[in-house]
Amino acid sequence: MKSAIITTKLKQAIDAFDGRNYAIAHPIFLQAAQQKSTIAQFHLGKMYEQGLGVNQDYVQAANYFRQAAERGYPPAQAKLGEFYANGLGLPMDYRQAAEWFSKAADQQDKTPEHRLHEACSAYEVEDFDTALSTFQELAQENDAVAQFHLGEMYSAGKGVPTDFQQAADWYELAAKQDFVPAQVRLGRMFANGEGVQKDYRAAAEWLMKAAEREDDDNENLFEQAQNAYRQNDYANAFNMLEKLANRNHDAAQYYLGSMYKYGYSVRQDNEQAIEWYMKSAKQGYPDAVAMVRELASKHSMPLAMFGLGELYGSALGVEQDDVQAADWFLRAAQRGYVPAQIKMAEWYAQGRGVARDYLQASAWYGKVAQAQAAGQAQQAFDAEVAQVNSTSTPHTRPTISPTVTYGGNSSVKPTVVQPSAPPTIQSLKTTDDAVIESEVAQTSQSANDFQSISPNNQQVDDVPVNPENEIVDTQPENVEEPIINENGEVAEVIDGAALLQTVEETEEPVEEEPKINEEEQAQQFQHALTSYQNQDFDNAFNEFKALAEQGHAEAQYYLGILYAQGWGVEQDERQAAVWYLKAADQGHAAAQYNLGMAYAKGLGIMQNMVEASYWYTQAAKLGYVQAQNNLGELYTSGEGVNQDYAQAAEWFTKAADQGDAIAQYNLGLAYAYGRGVEQSDKKALEYTLLAAEQGNAIAQYNLGVRYESGQGVVQNYTEAAKWYTKAAEQGNPSAQNNLGLLYADGNGVEKDTDKAADWCEKAADQGHADAQFNLGLLYAQSTDTEEGQRQAAAWYAKAAEQGHSGAQNNLAIAYFNGWGVEQDHEKAIVWYRAAAEQGVVAAQYGLGWLYFHSSPPNYELAEQWWQEAVKQGDQNAQRGLDELAKRRA
User: Fold this and answer.
1) What's the pTM?
2) Structural domains for the chain
């Protein structure tokens, strides 16, 4: 019973995680992780890695991935290898990366599917101990087949004491996932009162659900799909094939891939096509393997090359051949396909399919890092800045889209003085000028983002059947085939209705709505709108739905909003997108914009920036301001369209002229850097000011930077403080940090150390590394107490773990001297090295000093780091080298 309860809670957490409800998921995962659940540990790692509902924390993420990895969970082992390879929360260590990738690779035969097969085999030969252990593990991962088998074991007392209540609990978990045999067993238990209270109505309901599912049997459904396909009814064929493909029907997956490849009922999408071909090929479907090979060899598609490598590497549909696999991975990697580059790094580290070569592994990891950096740089006007902040302004009224949020990036490197170094180490003073935010403000996901529709709901012209890909009916006509259930057995005939002889019928026949004219439609729409505005969402939903089904575009859009928000109906993002599409096809601008958002965010479907740009363009041409701004962003970054700064500026201008603050800000950036327009500081300031006066925090922050540094304006600390304050009060961490520094120095405001610390702490609490470093400095400089030193070291540590070189240097000094932490020269060396590798000259000198004075001394490393410091003109390091030369003489 306890296991079933834990599984139910874990499923609740996973569902909440998938639905982006992290506030619910996090505490359940924490509780489950304490009970050694690898699934929970892995999900916690992902939350901390990506900052999902928690502050992004690579160290915490690595800790949870390690817990799951050490318990043998392959995805966590692969993640831990990735963290070592990229130095995320852990020291960069390619050997450790290779070791963990190797462990994950060794576990490749322990996938859930393989484990389930082994457990079922053990069950068949009555090795119940083995079967029970694996079924319990898989059941906690919400595997319906495993849950069903646990029900069987408890029901029959196989390997466990007979326990009908436990059996009913496990059957119910599987039955709720539409697993037909479990629905049958549960229905019988309710009918007989075994493990549950006798309840004929519940028994009938479960047995009728099973009957309905049997009517929807896979082969029967596939035959219907064939008929629809032959009659050129591609939309229905697609729906049925998609349902079967999601049930791992290999032939359906293959034909679904062909529909994407040739654009039958959906827009042509080679990536989706390859994805479905691969799923089919992994099950050994010959035609799918041949198609992947064709796309890889004849069409040179990197995704297909990578897929063919996976097939050879895992013996899926072909004989295992690691050399062939490595060859295909290499071809894809050489074309810049990042997953293939990662795979080559892993295989060189493991010596799989190629000779073990850690230098090659390192080189490929380097290419991955370069590709990631290039991808980030493409989205920005200038160099990457240190911190990324976002503000959100969700629109929840129907006259505008309910899914818009805005965001931007901001960073300032303040003038700071670091504390004194170890004996004979000079303290370092660094000055980095404040920089103007140089990235286009990106539209980020809000709490109201919706799942986009799947391609089967797209309305496109039918395409003639390609004879080579026509589905062929292989069954003789007029021959009844037995119905096979999902357990591979001949399905028994279920007469659920027999149990309803004493149960009242509650359903009434649905009568068709009479057609109404346009005047009546207008009246009904107005009535529905009034219900909506009065927040009578139940009535609004029914009224909008009736109109939407008659093709009323505005009602279709409103119906989409109700589904997206869960107002008057259970929230269903996919249905929301369906109705947005129907309205969008009728030229409804807001619906077109929402559909563009779905594709841009990859909500419910694979992210497709080309589709996003298409729908944004349709809405933008109709004057929809958010679409105009977002289209400008796409032209800036070159996502979904060819990069074109002039086009970007044109769309920003259209939106800015309508008063859109974020577009005004983006247009200001265009003028500041001369991107698509003639460079003009005057116009840059003009548009940034317009956005700032409308309350845009990023624009306010950038105005503060301009006035503080005198970039394009006369330097004015008072104006800088004014605009920083406005942005800081909206929670912008970079503005909070900079305002704190103005208070610390008394620039533009009266000097006030307490206010300085308050503002820096607000930013530091948001994970702003510069603010954490500066707060450490404030504690170190303003108080000489032991508590002050402890606080300083604690804040240095937070910033250091984020890679802040100044904080790493100061934390090393703290460990060297025992300031606020226990004295530890080994840890001092670790943090000095981290800072030194980032070019901090004081750290390079300090590291050399520690190696020079270590016991025994390490003159080689001391010389190495002093030479690095001398290259930057450090005289202390030169004197150290002179002393080293004397000792060697």
Assistant:
1) 0.47
2) 1-108 (1.25.40.10), 113-354 (1.25.40.10), 852-888 (no CATH)
